[in-house]
From TrEMBL:
Identification of the protein by name: N-acetylglucosamine-6-phosphate deacetylase
Presence of the UniProt keyword Metal-binding in the record: yes
Keywords: Carbohydrate metabolism, Hydrolase, Metal-binding
Amidohydrolase-related domain segment(s): 53-378
Organism lineage: Bacteria, Bacillati, Actinomycetota, Actinomycetes, Micrococcales
Names of required cofactors: a divalent metal cation
Binding-site residues for Zn(2+), renumbered to this chain: E128, H194, H215
BP GO annotations: N-acetylglucosamine catabolic process
NCBIfam families the UniProt entry points to: nagA
Annotated family: Belongs to the metallo-dependent hydrolases superfamily. NagA family.
Cofactor note: Binds 1 divalent metal cation per subunit.
Amino acid sequence: MDLVIHSARLVTGGQVTTDAFVAISGDVIAAVGTGQEWAALNAAETVNADGLTLTPGFIDIHGHGGNARSFDDGADSIRSALEVHRSHGTTRSVLSLVTATVDDLVDRVGTIADLAEADPTILGSHLEGPFLDVARQGAHNAELLRAPDPESIERLVTAARGTLRQVTLAPELPGGLDAIRQFADAGVTVAVGHTSVDFDGALEAFEAGASILTHAFNAMNGIHHRAPGPVAAATSSPSVTLEIINDGVHVHPEVVRMAFAAAPGRIALITDAMAAAGSDDGVYQLGSLSVTVTDGVARLTDGNSIAGSTLLLDEALRRAVSDVGIELTDAVTALTTTPARAIGRSSDLGQLAPGFVADAVLLDDDLAVVGVWAAGDRVA
């Protein structure tokens, strides 16, 4: 046995277990138990987690960068950006790419495919664009937005070599429903987002195979009592996961609470982090657009649109518990089990259980990160 973390309050799978231990062999969980049974395992290394909380590693299925770097800017920038997320408990990441030309996106998903082959903590890519509604463009270059077509979809899927995990699109665009089916048939999880679709149109998209709502409440119609919109369509569809950016800016805490209540077990807390996450206020690039970050809030320099976030997932967890009032078990599920299931990895990611990957986070009483392990290795 390589490592045992013992005497912890274990939070996984919606349960809390006291005086628990997790034993790691290589990059997988070998055993989980309670009490002093861990001592007989003769582990090469032990960590006394008395007074600490142990959770699975956090999974971010929607983020664009950090550490003053963007995932759009090549392998070195990706590695640097991931460092800050890893140190804050995110052990697996889907790398989100903003709208660009199809030619550029083909190159970028290919770069991510290369990195994912060597680094299992990189789960693949997420195309947030270019198949978005210009009326809900947010921080995307409107000149590059376009309707989907079969040839472009095939090029992107082929270039990603099985690592295109997610695509966000507006289903009301010409060919939108056919695009959902084509992506889904290729094994890509489809998300509805940056869209003007109504309640019925969203239901139609979910019936066609879409299964995520991209950063719910943002860049879409809100909930009205006579026009409930895509959020209500998502909460009423049991197969749909709702992404939430819980930074106190994108969604009010009370609305976050309502979302957790309306779709229990189907909320995935995401960062939507841009380059400024883990860095300072200032001016940054998000794709081809300039973004100004002031007091940690990112907005387009030429306009008032929110342009991603500076959130890290440990802060999202703390806000969920302290500001929103979500139970710790449910908040941890929204960072682990739910995002893993959303991208089809629930059999090996998102829980601390035998046979699952050895991704773990130790937290103190304030839910601040004090230790991170990814694929069995401790993160600096």
